[in-house]
Task: structure prediction
Amino acid sequence: MFADVLLPLPVSTYTYSIPKEMAGLVVAGGRVVVQFGKRKIYAALVIEIHNRRPEAHEVKEIISVLDETPIISPLQMTFWSWIAAYYLCYPGEVMHAALPSAFKLASESKVTLNPDYHPLQEELNEKESLLFEALHNRTTIEISEVSKIIGQMKVIPVIKTMLERGIILMEEELHERYRPRKETFIRINSEFVGNEEKFKDLFEQLERKARKQLELLMSFLILSRQDSGEYRDVKRNVLLKSVTTSPSAIDRLVAKGVLECYEKDIDSAYAGDEPLDVNSIVLMDFQQKAYDEILDVFNDKDVVLLHGVTSSGKTELYIKFIQETLDKGKQVLYLLPEIALTTQTISRLKRYFGGNVGVYHSRFNENERVEIWNKVLIQGKEDVFGGQSYGIILGARSAVFLPYSNLGLVIVDEEHDSSFKQFEPSPRYNGRDAALYLAHMHGAKTILGSATPSIESYYNCQEGKYGLVQMTERYGKMEMPEINVVSLSEETRWKKMQSHFSSVLVKQLEDALAKGEQAIIFQNRRGFSLRLECDTCGWMPTCRNCDVTLVYHKQNHQLRCHYCGYTTFIPETCPDCKGISLKMKGFGTEKVEEELGIIFPKARIARMDLDTTRTRNSHQKIINDLEERKIDILVGTQMVTKGLDFENVSTVSILNADNMLGYPDFRSAERSFQLMAQVSGRSGRKNKRGKVIIQTYRPRHPIILDVINNDYKAMYDQQLVDRRKFNYPPFYRLVLIKIKHRDQAILINAADELANRLRKVFGKRILGPEYPIVSRIMNYYLKQIMLKIERQASQIEMKKKLIQEIMEFNKLKEFGSLKVIIDVDPQ
Result:
């Protein structure tokens, strides 16, 4: 017998023979250990078991079996095949993206000791003890070295067992160690519950000797007392806010045995509580109308686009449909574009569904990702792994790869967001489109939600492919924000600008701060200054690896490349003319943060961009600080625009709308509208009409007028005219072919050769080759070719021809070192 296996590499399937002693143990969808090449060992995934001996090459034997039961389903294999075919990549690349790293053991993988493991917890066998001792003396060890240490060839089963027991970790896991954010809670000592005499003695004692402790205890009892007479736990920070005493009063009451402190993971804050009844959600009239319309659409269509203005209460509708799906015994996939968004959404869903919600994204460590994978896999078969399966999975785009067996509903929130698109590495898939196909495979219904839908999705509604349901009111009768457009030309002419802030914005921020309200400032550039320039000769520092200017970051006093990470220090004089007139030009979020601190010295200002959110919980901390009103003004990039709700934010400002409008891309108008409308939607909550200040040199620009009028349809109609005229989506499909090489001359010849070959097959559908906006990144020169495929054309045939031509081109010896990257539906 033979097995076709998939390796987590840019390759197709390979065939291995099954030794007689493993007959019956190898299962399709399970993992086996194989040798690939002369020395490399991999955990491979079995795709098919058959008796067809390959004739083209010698067949190696499977070394050992890792899984007795499948870890992926036949449906997943079909889904992976579709991803590979549609996005023109290798099935092995899909496997690499889909599986958690702990499932992809290889000889070059490194392992390290788990610092949380205590050897007294359980005994280790002889082989495990040898590896355990070796890891005590060395930080990390490659799996290929383990065989020498333990004295046997078949090491991956040993590694697998030790990983599952938490004795060792993958090396990459150590760098991303999970540190769950915890909240401190206070509870009353059980000895006091129902003991009036003990309470009376305590009050008398505190009255005489510790009035501050008495004040704090009384506040705790008021906050924690329930109608049943029992006491609920109270968050430590909530208790401290309720009184004027210092935190030491809590410590003293704890020392006396009156109160107890304990920590609880934020993600599981609602898991132990009784979930709220979904029927307690009372929909407003316009929400109920939308809910009924979605039900009607689902009678004859599988996909509906829910186009609801910001703060219209789309989440309440999602929760209603989630409950209906769970009642049918089916699973729910809830996709969000950004990890930052999951914080608030987790809290909302867990209030209603408790521990039935699983969260899956790239910042979880490998043990957690494997645990969630297994809990999704056991849907309906709890005896395989033990424990309870998740009914709802909430996650970023990678959550589409989990082993669903019975999907009933897929929700893609903020469906317009470009973060759903994977850029590097392959497969360069779109999470929204992949989720639509996944739902189709399961026969599930899909809700696409957005206040500013993508033009492609809205077009599918107009064509009758999707249903369309609209909500034009905000929840709780909240008004849409008042939008003021400020002309930067006028403000500059009359010398009203304070640095990058117009007089209108400064006055509005003063009013908001005086009322104790919060503000969000949006600037879509990070760093302090966008470039350094010599006023004498015009010299600007550029990256030595990329064709871009370096951005100044004041915090580290460095010039930094945002493409490759190259950094250098600021020269004292101009390297070209030796002049000393080096000036900062342009501004980013870091500079905005500093200058706001000068104008408003008493305000608490924070920044939310890539530089401040590199660690796992940094997003969550900033969001929580804003919710708890520890931040007065939040400065940020696109991260602040995406679906976050803050009840005390009354003012939002876009510092320079022209940066977005002037970007050379056919989607710039659509994206500018989406960004401005989304960031405007962060303003105004709970009967407070928010204010939005848009600063621009082009106050009469059509897109800005559409944002002021909240007129998505006007923007859509105009963009549709332009896209029809110039053959862009939704009328054409795009395939972008990027070619890379370190030698510019070789690249130019290769790009011309490939374009000529493709032009013979596809004719006028081929555009290029051209240099992209940034023509060199990390010392690779770049050129690109665009293929435009008519929507009515057979995409399958077109793509087959494209792959065939590129494969023939790759065989040319003179271009053997060239890198060709294919990006289907580029963003």
In short: Residues 173-180, 267-272, 380-387 have pLDDT under 50 and may be disordered.
